[in-house]
User: Which sequence fits this backbone?
């Protein structure tokens, strides 16, 4: 960044925050219907995304992930609380110079080709022609769409749209990228590639704020995750801490015969203090915790 | 909360709309007046015309397709002409002329249809009708045509073609030289008046009882304006007037007519623009 | 850790014309690629049909009819096209959530609205120019055919003096193609511009294109008929209080589109007072500014 700084030495510097995203007591209420019914989509939510990290927000459908992201992007206003991007209020247009966004199920102008789409968004970011041309080629290669650069988006598959959306989010070399379900609708190979891309971006020093309900993906790329349910933050922290459950042991067997399983069960029953919590095919621990939180909530329990 | 905010915004928008509406109203009224005065905008058609319109024509007219409706109706009226439905034709033209009062061609057409065609039709081609009825209808069409022409002139005070058509009714149908001359006189100096009207005015004035002196003075002025005006009819008319007014011989014009090839008189069934009356 | 302070400090002008232009260009491309211009083909067909009107009338009258019908159709196409194309744009961006990606770039909402408006105006301008050229070509052609015919007919038997022939030709030319007709096209453009900005205003409220199109057309028709219909209606209802008040309310809330129909007079061959046309420009600008501001008021904190 230093060389860019030197180009604009006269500009009055903005007080930069080490936090890429800062959400404080955010509440978002939607009024639905004419009679003033409302839905609390996000309820007193607070979290931070540090510059340079990959932060994942996970939660089931309708838990308020997209809503939080839209508030951070200034597409929606908070009913209460605030959201900041690099210390700037999320409504500040300057925040968007350094933010890239990939919405869920992105949809672009069908009549534009892949390259034209990137150019359109680049121009909106005020990029110069030559720079934009180079950047477009670079990004198309990065997301593996060089071959489809001249095709109209109307003919793109869902996965291709997701990739062009990702490229679009990166066009102006943002410092923060917000990805709403980046791998939704993408096949396993494609989703693997996207995850690799996210890791590469992180290595380049770009902050990533993503959300998903596909846990194994979050698990793999995120430095920290927040688990959100019904608009409230349920758990938050570094991934390793969240998924470690000390008093439980998981065993994964291969080619176990029913007789062997029977024997093991007998042994467990014989032990006084041990209880078989669960048996079945293995699941990620994160998913288990996720279901625990959600399940408890649905049983009427409190977190 | 947000519902209230939404409403407040709506209120603000409404307020803005009203404020703008109130501010622009006087300006727009003034503009409309000027545009109408400059004849760029048509004044609203009278309610009788609107009432007489069919539902679809009314919608079209109100929806800004005024010219299109007028054109459609005039094409439609042409069908009535073919069918000799004079009253229906006249009704349609009343609407057309109300929609586009500034288009003199509509007035010219309707005066021609009613004053020339309809009258000719009752005069010559309606033998099944009793003579008395035919004469009455003839008179009726003539006076309707005159009324239409006068309305048209009121809307287009500088129109020569409407007057020309009106004069035709007086001249050919009513054989009324006084009124013919009066209309021709109004035409003098108007843009689009054919050159022969200058002479025709004098010729018909000459035939108007009581106007002989005026006519003589006028025709003599024409005569003295040069050879170019020395047409056979002018000689004939001046000679007639000399007789009627007993002009002393020394002051009479010389009888030798100029040696000019007789230009055939334009047949009376040819209208300006070359339409031949069937 | 690198800090993005430089980019953050980039100046953010209140209105970036470059951004407006980018969006306008995008809109233009969109409308072209949506094949909206195909309607011009329909118009071309219509003009040819009108040009072949065979009315048993005088050439002057026939020309004037052709002119009225083709310019009337042009006016109709212009405003209809302005409504439909505008209404297809913003609600569609909303439905497709394309707006998310645009507004998450450094784009102000006013820039977005202005860009859309300019895009539509450029397209309407191009269409009107093309339609004008089509009509101009067709009318000039008919005019020359008529003049040739009339000349031949009048000169044949030598019954008419040169002046009479000249008068007749002048009469035909008067109803033919004249440069002032360009102003009639501008009048249609102004009308289309006002209805476009009203449609933008509506589409900031509405959630679907169809709704926007229907309401816009309704508003246009009411705004157009209001002046004409109100006296008729008042007369019909014997000047009832209710109708009187309603007429007033409509006058205040709905733009007076009929005022923009001054192309009618121009097509009929009236003299064009340029000062008045200038005032109409000002009025149009007023409508555009006010309705854009109102749209912005709705759109500024609109959530999708
Ligand atoms: N524009 C809106 N109007 C009304 N309610 C809304 C609106 N947007 C979201 N909601 C509600 O807010 C809640 C949170 O929605 P949100 O889209 O943020 O969920 P999500 O976590 O992104 O879910 P998913 O995983 O399905 O994308 C939901 O109950 C939703 O119905
Ligand atoms: Mg979502």
Assistant:
């Amino acid at each position: 960044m230093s060389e860019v700084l030197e180009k604009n030495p006269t500009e009055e510097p903005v007080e930069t925050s080490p936090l890429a995203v800062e959400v404080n007591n955010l509440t978002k209420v939607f009024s639905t219907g004419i009679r003033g019914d409302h839905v609390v989509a996000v309820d007193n939510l607070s979290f931070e995304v540090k510059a340079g990290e990959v932060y994942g927000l996970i939660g089931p459908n309708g838990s308020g992930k997209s809503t939080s992201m839209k508030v951070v992007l200034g597409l929606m206003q908070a009913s209460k609380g605030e959201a900041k991007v690099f210390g700037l209020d999320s409504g500040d247009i300057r925040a968007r110079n350094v933010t890239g966004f990939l919405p869920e199920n992105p949809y672009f102008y069908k009549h534009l080709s892949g390259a034209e789409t990137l150019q359109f968004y680049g121009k909106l970011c005020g990029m110069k022609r030559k720079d934009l041309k180079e950047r477009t080629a670079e990004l198309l290669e990065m997301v593996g769409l060089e071959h489809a650069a001249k095709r109209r988006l109307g003919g793109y598959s869902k996965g291709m749209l997701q990739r062009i959306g990702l490229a679009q989010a990166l066009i102006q070399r943002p410092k923060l990228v917000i990805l709403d379900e980046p791998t939704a609708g993408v096949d396993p190979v494609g989703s693997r590639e996207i995850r690799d891309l996210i890791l590469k971006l992180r290595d380049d020093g770009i902050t990533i704020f993503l959300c998903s309900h596909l846990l194994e993906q979050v698990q793999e790329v995120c430095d920290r995750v927040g688990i959100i349910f019904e608009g409230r933050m349920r758990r938050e922290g570094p991934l390793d801490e969240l998924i470690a459950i000390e008093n439980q042991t998981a065993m994964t067997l291969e080619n176990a015969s029913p007789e062997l399983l029977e024997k093991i069960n007998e042994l467990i029953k014989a032990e006084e203090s041990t209880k078989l919590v669960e048996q079945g095919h293995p699941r990620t621990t994160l998913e288990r915790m996720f279901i625990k939180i959600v399940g408890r909530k649905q049983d009427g329990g409190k977190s | 909360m947000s519902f209230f905010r939404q409403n407040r915004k709506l209120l603000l928008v409404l307020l803005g709309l009203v404020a703008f509406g109130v501010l622009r109203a006087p300006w727009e009224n003034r503009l409309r007046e000027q545009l109408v005065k400059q004849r760029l905008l048509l004044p609203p058609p009278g309610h009788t015309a609107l009432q007489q319109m069919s539902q679809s024509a009314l919608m079209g007219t109100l929806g800004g397709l005024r010219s299109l409706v007028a054109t459609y109706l005039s094409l439609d009226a042409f069908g009535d002409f073919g069918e000799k439905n004079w009253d229906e034709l006249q009704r349609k033209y009343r609407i057309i002329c109300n929609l586009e009062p500034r288009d003199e061609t509509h007035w010219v057409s309707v005066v021609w249809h009613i004053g020339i065609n309809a009258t000719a039709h009752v005069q010559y081609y309606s033998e099944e009708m009793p003579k008395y009825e035919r004469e009455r209808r003839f008179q009726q069409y003539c006076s309707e045509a005159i009324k239409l022409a006068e309305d048209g002139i009121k809307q287009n005070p500088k129109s020569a073609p409407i007057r020309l058509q009106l004069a035709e009714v007086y001249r050919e149908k009513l054989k009324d030289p006084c009124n013919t001359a009066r209309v021709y006189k109004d035409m003098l100096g108007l843009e689009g008046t054919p050159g022969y009207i200058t002479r025709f005015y004098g010729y018909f004035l000459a035939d108007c009882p009581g106007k002989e002196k005026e006519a003589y003075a006028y025709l003599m002025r024409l005569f003295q304006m040069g050879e170019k005006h020395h047409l056979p009819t002018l000689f004939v008319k001046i000679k007639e007037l000399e007789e009627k007014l007993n002009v002393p011989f020394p002051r009479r014009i010389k009888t030798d007519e100029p040696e000019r090839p007789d230009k055939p008189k334009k047949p009376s069934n040819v209208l300006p623009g070359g339409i031949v009356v069937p | 850790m690198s800090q993005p302070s430089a980019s953050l400090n980039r100046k953010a002008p209140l209105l970036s014309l470059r951004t407006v232009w980018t969006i306008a260009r995008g809109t233009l491309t969109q409308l072209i690629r949506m094949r909206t211009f195909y309607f011009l083909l329909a118009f071309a067909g219509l003009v040819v049909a009108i040009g072949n009107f065979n009315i048993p009338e005088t050439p002057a009258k026939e020309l004037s009819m052709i002119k009225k019908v083709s310019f009337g159709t042009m006016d109709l196409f212009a405003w209809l096209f302005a409504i439909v194309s505008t209404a297809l744009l913003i609600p569609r961006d909303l439905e497709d959530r394309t707006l998310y990606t645009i507004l998450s770039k450094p784009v102000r909402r006013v820039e977005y609205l202005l860009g859309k408006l300019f895009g539509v105006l450029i397209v309407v301008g191009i269409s009107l120019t093309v339609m004008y050229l089509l009509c101009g070509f067709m009318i000039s052609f008919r005019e020359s055919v008529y003049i040739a015919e009339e000349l031949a007919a009048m000169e044949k038997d030598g019954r008419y003096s040169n002046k009479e022939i000249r008068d007749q030709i002048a009469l035909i030319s008067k109803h033919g193609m004249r440069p002032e007709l360009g102003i009639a096209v501008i009048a249609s453009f102004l009308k289309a511009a006002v209805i476009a900005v009203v449609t933008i205003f509506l589409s900031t409220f509405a959630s679907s294109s169809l709704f926007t199109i229907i309401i816009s057309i309704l508003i246009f028709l009411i705004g157009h008929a209001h002046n004409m219909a109100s006296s008729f209606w008042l007369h019909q209802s014997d000047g009832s209080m209710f109708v009187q008040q309603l007429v007033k309310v409509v006058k205040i809330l709905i733009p007076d589109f009929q005022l923009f129909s001054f192309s009618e007079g121009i097509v009929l061959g009236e003299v064009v007072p340029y000062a008045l046309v200038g005032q109409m420009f000002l009025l149009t600008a007023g409508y555009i500014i006010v309705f854009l501001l109102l749209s912005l008021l709705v759109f500024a904190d609109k959530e999708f």
The mean pLDDT of chain A is 82.
